[in-house]
Automatic annotation (TrEMBL):
Belongs to the exbB/tolQ family. The chain crosses the membrane at residues 20-42, 88-111, 135-156. Keywords: Cell membrane, Membrane, Protein transport, Transmembrane, Transmembrane helix, Transport. This is TonB2 energy transduction system inner membrane component ExbB. Pfam families: MotA_ExbB. InterPro entries: ExbB/TolQ_transport, MotA_ExbB_proton_chnl. Residues 60-168 form the MotA/TolQ/ExbB proton channel domain. It comes from Thalassotalea profundi. It is found in: Cell membrane; Membrane.
Length: 175
C-alpha cells in the first residue's frame, strides 16, 4: 500500500511539472490504450467465436455457387472486416492527436517562460525552470504516447488484413 501511495505521488508530481496540457495528454493516452486493449481482447478472444459462427453458417448453406451465394459471402466478409476495424480509426486519430497536444504544451510552456522574463526583466534560469519543464515534458509525453500507438495501430491493421484474407479463403465458392 505504501508503494502504491509513493507511486501515485510521483505520478502527481510529474504531471504537476508538465502542466495542465500533460493532464490532457495523459487522458488521451489512457483512452487510446483502453481502445487498443479492447481491440486486443477482440482479436485474441471474441474474433474466434465470430469467425467460427460465420464459417459454420456458410458451411450449412446448400447453395454456394449462385450470385446470391456470392453476395452473402461478400456480406459475411464485410461484417467480419467491419468488426476487425472497429475503433482503429479512432485509435489512429488519438495517435495523431498526441504530438499535437505535446506541441500545445510546448507553446504554453514557452509563453510562461516569456512571462517570467518580462516580469523579472532578466533571463534568470531558476525563475524560468518551471516554464521550460512545462514546455518539454508535454512534448516528450506526446511523442512517447504517439510512438506506442503507431506500433499498435500498424499491428492491428496488419492483423485485420490477414484475417480478412483468411476469412475470404475459408468461405469457398463452389462453381
Amino acid at each position: 500500500m505504501i508503494i502504491f501511495i509513493e507511486m501515485m505521488n510521483s505520478i502527481r508530481e510529474f504531471i504537476d511539472t508538465g502542466g495542465q496540457v500533460l493532464t490532457v495528454i495523459a487522458g488521451v493516452i489512457c483512452l487510446m490504450w483502453f481502445l487498443i486493449f479492447e481491440r486486443l481482447y477482440f482479436f485474441l478472444g471474441t474474433y474466434k467465436r465470430v469467425r467460427d459462427h460465420i464459417i459454420h453458417s456458410w458451411n450449412a448453406r446448400d447453395d454456394k455457387s449462385s450470385w446470391n451465394a456470392e453476395q452473402i459471402r461478400m456480406a459475411h466478409v464485410s461484417r467480419i472486416t467491419e468488426q476487425l476495424n472497429k475503433n482503429v480509426a479512432l485509435i489512429q486519430s488519438l495517435v495523431v492527436l498526441c504530438p499535437l497536444l505535446g506541441l500545445l504544451g510546448t507553446v504554453t510552456g514557452m509563453i510562461e517562460v516569456f512571462d517570467v522574463m518580462a516580469i523579472s526583466g532578466s533571463g534568470n534560469a531558476r525563475s524560468m525552470a518551471s516554464g521550460v519543464s512545462k514546455a518539454t515534458i508535454p512534448t516528450m509525453a506526446g511523442m512517447v504516447g504517439s510512438l506506442s500507438g503507431v506500433f499498435m495501430v500498424t499491428w492491428l491493421q496488419r492483423k485485420t488484413k490477414r484475417r480478412t484474407e483468411q476469412m475470404e479463403d475459408s468461405l469457398l465458392m463452389i462453381h
